[in-house]
Amino acid sequence: MHSPVKQFTIEVLYELSLFGFDISFTNSALFMVLAVIVSTLFLAVAMRPAAVVPGRLQSAAEMMYEFVADMVRSNVGSEGRPYFPFIFTLFVFVLFSNLLGMLPYSYTTTSQIIVTFAMASFIFVAVTLIGLIKHGLHFFSFFVPAGAPKPLYPLIILIEVVSYFVRPVSLSVRLFANMLAGHTMLKVFAGLAVMMAGAGGVTAAGSLLPLLAIIGLTGLEFLVAALQAYVFTILTCMYLNDALHLH
User: Directed axis angle between helix 113-135 and helix 167-199, to 10°?
Assistant: First the structure.
C-alpha cells in the first residue's frame, strides 16, 4: 500500500526557470489553473440564459452569489461592497479547489501549506494596507481595546499585536490541516479495505466495514470542502471589518 501522504507529493510536469529561479509547472499549479477554468465556465454557462425563472445551474450560481453577498453585508456592512468581487472570487476559488481534490487521481491544492499561506498572507497584507489607508496612524488604536486599564496597556498591546500577526498562520493552517487530514484518512481506510479484501476469507468480508467508512468519510469530506471555503471567506470578512471599523 502506498503511503497515505504520497498523494500530496508535488510533481513537476514541465520544467521551467526564470532568472535562475525554478518556476516549473507542477501538478499543484495545474489544479489551481483547473479550479479557475472550471469555476469560470460554471458561472459563465450558468448565467448565460439569465432567465427570469432560473434553471438548476442558474439557481446554484445565484445562490452562491447571494450567499457570499449576505456574508459580506452581515460581517462588513455597506463599506464592504467594493471588496465583494475579491471575496466572491476567493470563496469560489477555494471551494472549487477543494471539490476538484475529491475527484479520483486529482490533486488537492489547498492541502499544501504554501498555497494556503500565500493566500492568507496576501489577505493579511491587503487588509492591513486598507486599514492604514483609511485610518492613518489611528489604525494602531486597534491594538488598544477601548476601556482597557492603562496599567495593563503593555500586556494588552503585546497580546493584541501577537494575535494580529498570527492571523495568516491560523487562517492558512486551518484550511491546510483540514484538507490534509481528511484526504489522509480516506487513503488509510481505502488501503485497509483493499488489503482486507485481498486477504480472502473472513478478512475479506470484514473489508465491508472500512468500505462503508470510506463512503461516510467521502460524504463528510464534501461537507468539509464547502465548510472550509465558508470559514476561510468569513474570516477574511471579519479581518476586513476590523480594518474598516477598528474596534
Answer: 160
In three state form, how does the secondary structure of the chain look? CCCCCHHHCCCEEECCEECCEECCEEHHHHHHHHHHHHHHHHHHHHHCCCCCCCCHHHHHHHHHHHHHHHHHHHHCCHHHHHHHHHHHHHHHHHHHHHHHCCCCCCCCHHHCHHHHHHHHHHHHHHHHHHHHHHHHHHHHHHHCCCCCCHHHHHHHHHHHHHHHHCHHHHHHHHHHHHHHHHHHHHHHHHHHHHHHHHHCHHHHHHCHHHHHHHHHHHHHHHHHHHHHHHHHHHHHHHHHHHHHHCC
pLDDT at 187 over 90: no
Return the C-alpha cell found at 191. Answer: 488501503
Residue among 234, 231, 229, 227 at smallest CA distance from 94 = 229
Q: What's the pLDDT tens digit per position in 105-124? A: 889 999 999 999 999 999 99
Whether residue 144 contacts residue 157, with contact meaning beta carbons closer than 8 Å, is answered with: yes
What percentage of the chain carries pLDDT values higher than 90? 53
Helix-helix angle 27-47:56-75, to 10 degrees:
110
Q: What are 21's strand-pairing partners? A: 18
- The domains of the chain are located at 6-245
Average pLDDT of the chain is 87
Tell me the whole-structure pTM to 2 decimals.
0.89
Structure confidence at residue 240 (pLDDT): 94
